[in-house]
Specification:
197 residues, mainly alpha, globular
């Protein structure tokens, strides 16, 4: 995966960074903590502007988040309530939990989106309830972009500061990414099996 990401950034530049961050939101096995530090490392060599790297990553991330937001709007609260009452045991969601989440989202929605965009795994999932609970689109985009900008800025800075040491670190990133994906998938399958019993 590392080599593919490196080649795409090398060939497509800022557009490649934006595309990778869009895909990161749609296909979690492409981790932002691999893409943005690599782009930051490239910026440290003078090939890219660090600010434009962050801007490209943020544009891609926010566009990816919008896909999940619109999915949430499409599903809507009534349909989600019906799904939760029939199949909620698969994801540990009940209609009562949805009602509480709706009240909580009315109060903290925009801030929750912004903070959620800086937390691994949550950063992708937070967009769905924002759509389901109909957070205003302009507010969603603004707070998503702020959270993404902070997240992408921190990751880019890490890659920029690592510079020559990035080559040492990259050898550890592929196994770590594969390991994390395996742990998350296994935990989900086990929890779904246990709840179904």
């Amino acid at each position: 995966m590392f080599d593919w990401i490196t080649q795409l950034i090398g060939r497509a530049g800022y557009a490649g960074i934006a595309l990778l961050m869009l895909l990161e939101n749609l296909f979690p096995p492409i981790p932002s903590w691999l893409v943005m530090p690599l782009a930051g490392f490239e910026a440290s060599s003078g090939r890219f502007s660090p600010l434009l790297v962050v801007a490209a990553g943020t544009a891609g991330s926010t566009a990816g988040a919008l896909c999940w937001y619109w999915l949430g709007r499409l599903v809507g609260m009534p349909r989600l309530q019906r799904l939760a009452s029939r199949h909620g045991h698969w994801i540990s969601v009940t209609p009562d939990k949805l009602d509480r989440a709706s009240l909580w989202f009315d109060r903290y929605g925009a801030r929750a989106v912004m903070i959620g965009r800086m937390v691994p795994v949550v950063r992708i999932l937070i967009s769905i309830p924002a759509g389901v609970f109909a957070l205003r689109l302009r507010k969603f985009v603004l707070f998503t972009a702020i959270g993404d900008g902070i997240w992408n800025g921190a990751l880019t800075a890490a890659g920029y500061l690592l510079r020559s040491r990035y080559a040492e670190v990259k050898d550890y990133l592929n196994p770590v990414a594969a390991g994390m994906l395996t742990v998350v998938a296994t935990a989900y399958v086990l929890s779904a099996i246990l709840r179904a019993k």
